[in-house]
Amino acid sequence: xxxxxxxxxxxxxxxxxxxxxxxxxxxxxxxxxxxxxxxxxxxxxxxxxxxxxxxxxxxxxxxxxxxxxxxxxxxxxxxxxxxxxxxxxxxxxxxxxxxxxxxxxxxxxxxxx
Length: 113
What we know:
The protein is of the alpha+beta class. The protein is built from five helices and three strands; from the N terminus they run H-H-E-H-H-E-E-H.
């Protein structure tokens, strides 16, 4: 069994919500103010900022305040552990499926008259 990785758990928890994924999709195009991000979401500002806090605590975004304006930006390097974990899982399952395919092919060949 793999060791526990709290940072990976936080990233997946943050990614589990569709609102947060939409925020990340928007920030992939470039930084935006909280007001710009909130404008396209039909929810209260406190609820929306809770989503931003979850993303920031997972390290997926950063925010900075200039005067009265808070802006957010994507932290692409924070996605590396998620990508690494997914690549490991893909390789594991691809290997299993390749072996299963070979087994089915072998069984089919053996049963041919």
